[in-house]
Amino acid sequence: MRPVHILQAGPEVTEPLAPYAQVDRTRPEGGCWVLGHMVGGLDGSAAIGGRVGDLSTAPDARLFVLMRALADVVLVGAQTVRRERYGAVRLPPEQVAARRAAGRPGTPPLAVVTRSLDLDWSARAFADAPPGSRTLVITCADADAGRLARARQVADVIIAGADRVDPEQAMLALSELGHQVVLCEGGPTWLGELVAAGRLDELCLTIAPLMGGDPLPVSISPPGAPLAHFALRQVIRDGDTLFLRYERGRDDG
């Protein structure tokens, strides 16, 4: 029987991003490292009134913005883009300056996963993309031709799969574009697809001190998906908000 430990307060963390910035995100088997960043209530709910933002506490909202500085691309499903009214990725000025000093683009591009291409192409997610970080659209070969042509007018399109977006092909395409750290912000269905494909390397999960949200879990596994094992690497507390960091277990894939 393994020993049980009571967690006690450790050193004070003055910069919320620092513990996450120190992680080596090199994937042993090659390709891009996929980091999921999600928030859930105490009952596992991932939304309130259909929106994730209403579940987030102030410490989580702050970390949500800062975590994007670690990414080469921010990945999100189309349903989440619609519900959360996503805009292009924005970072604090000091993060933009630090990225540019390191030879990286000031902001990572947004990448939207969609089979249907049923999106408002005039929305901020596309119209407000900064120069050099044009929004990406990841779809499949069977997507509607008219919508596909419209998407190409406002975004860079990636075809990943025949009749559905294939997670492995999508991650390969992003890696080939030079995106080595992919930050996935949901939604639950797309996160479940990544987990089932063995392509989620790390999950940063915020536990908000709330109950009574929508009956929507953090991740929705596709039918027949195998169990995926993760190892707890880090626990941080800010008031009543808990931040957990997991990495994919050695026996998973």
Walkthrough of the structure:
The chain has 253 residues and is of the alpha/beta class. The chain has one domain (29-248): 3-Layer(aba) Sandwich (Dihydrofolate Reductase, subunit A). The chain is 25% helix and 21% strand. The chain contains 8 helices and 9 strands. It has helices spanning 18-21, 58-67, 78-84, 93-101, 124-127, 145-154, 167-176, 188-196; strands at 33-40, 73-77, 110-113, 136-139, 156-159, 181-184, 202-207, 230-238, 241-248. A 9-stranded mixed sheet has the order 5-4-3-2-6-1-7-9-8, sandwiched between helices. The chain is globular and about 60 Å long. It starts with 17 loop residues before the first helix and ends in a 5-residue tail after the last strand.
SSE layout:
Elements: H1 18-21, E1 33-40, H2 58-67, E2 73-77, H3 78-84, H4 93-101, E3 110-113, H5 124-127, E4 136-139, H6 145-154, E5 156-159, H7 167-176, E6 181-184, H8 188-196, E7 202-207, E8 230-238, E9 241-248
Parallel strand pairs: 1-6, 1-7, 2-3, 2-6, 3-4, 4-5
Antiparallel strand pairs: 7-9, 8-9
Q: Please state the second-level CATH architecture.
A: 3-Layer(aba) Sandwich
What's the level 1 CATH class? Alpha Beta
Q: Can you tell me the CATH superfamily?
A: Dihydrofolate Reductase, subunit A
Distance between the termini: 26 Å
* Count of folded domains: 1
Overall mean pLDDT stands at 93
Q: Helix fraction?
A: 10-25%
Unreliable runs: none
The overall strand count is 9
Sketch the topology as an H/E string, one letter per element.
HEHEHHEHEHEHEHEEE
Shape: globular
The amount of beta strand, in percent, is 15-25%
Strand order of the largest sheet: 5-4-3-2-6-1-7-9-8
